[in-house]
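User: Show me a protein chain along with its predicted structure.
Assistant: Here is one chain, sequence first, then structure tokens.
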Amino acid sequence: MPHDQPAGADKPVPLFVDVDGTLTRADISLESFVRIARSGLAAMIAMLTWLLAGRAIAKTMAARRDCVDAARLPYRPEVLDLIEQARTEGRPVILASASHWRHIRRIADHLALSDPVLATRGRANLKGPAKLAAIRAHIGQGAPFDYVGDSRADTCLWREARRAWSVGHVPPRSAVQRLGGPQPGAARSIIRAMRPHQWAKNVLVIVPAFTSGEFMKAGVLLTAMTAALLMSLIASSIYLLNDLLDIDSDRAHRSKWNRPLAHGDLPIPAALGLSLLLSVLGLAGGWMLGGPQLTLWLLAYMAITTAYSFRLKAVMVGDALILASLYTIRIWVGAIAIGVPLSFWLLLFSVFLFLSLAYLKRYVEMRDAIEPQRLLSGRGYVGGDLDVVMMSGISAGMVAVLVLALFAHDPATADHYALPEMLWLLCLPLIYWLNRIWMMARRGEVEGDPVAFAIRDRRSLLLGAVMACIFVAALYGPAIFQMIAD
């Protein structure tokens, strides 16, 4: 690596800063491709055509149709500090990136960097040796420069730089300095992106085993639990896809900004590959467990959730109906897996209960929006809809209670329960829980998904246990009392 600039040199040594993965944790070009692809099938086909013509052409065409929001990008503080230090010393700071110059110019303007930018233009993809050649053409052959990058593609630039830093890969036995602390482990980022805490929702797959009374039979509960695991794998594959499509809106959210994809801890290609792998495992397992019928319902779940991620989440009210349907499909999958018919009352109850929770989820997102008076990014609501969403959610919850009461009153219920009159008692804790969670949401005490909140909330878990005991007593009442008496 060349020696430091000799004393008395006329020109200050410029600092060249890579952008993708270095200045920001994001990949500007890939995110631009995703935003274009999600706008429709025609745009996706056009993008694939551009990629066939070459990376530089694809980046140019994408930059003409898409604008990066420079203010929302996940910048690395250590690189910003290095830039500020160079500016304090009166040195030029030049962004040098393989992303398109339109995007990089917006980032430079946001950071108040007045120096020219070096980036991809036309058919020239400015990466690796091409970037080094552009730097040499800009400052002259033999002129010293400093460079900060992150990947093996920057090796030739580190080799030529006076001083070199890396926020990622550091070549062995080199003078490249590590900038910033250790990066988050890939395994940790993958697990976080899969959202295993959300797998608790798939307990709904096991519900038909209990409501039908079949859970006491050998193998039924194990089959239901296996179906829940397969549903969890497929759900995680969709979470990854959803987070990829929601990068921009997540970065504008008070708490979702630190999700692995939005924060830049998980690369987009890795997320896509993992999403594909999980979906294949889930569908293959579904075929082995329940044959074509179970696989078909798992595919239906995937199709609806994918459509939701691309389009349906932006449909006002329709998005809540889709979310409620997805919860109900979990119950349907559980019934198919163990081969029992699904009760009309259970389906009706679940639709209204989960519609209430879907509205609650949307209410929390709207409440936490940074700019509530604007149309929420990727959603069909504005801040003024908050009260209407709350009223709709509470009303749906009360309808679910009414359905439960009508089920307890149905004469046909007596044929399946030993003490059907005890089912009336289920209404009381349910009314309490629904009103409590909505009041807590109104006070700002519910964060994120309401189902995930309920799983962590002790009082919700206690109420769930009470309702389970009431249900078991209604199903096996006399037998239980006899066992206690004996």
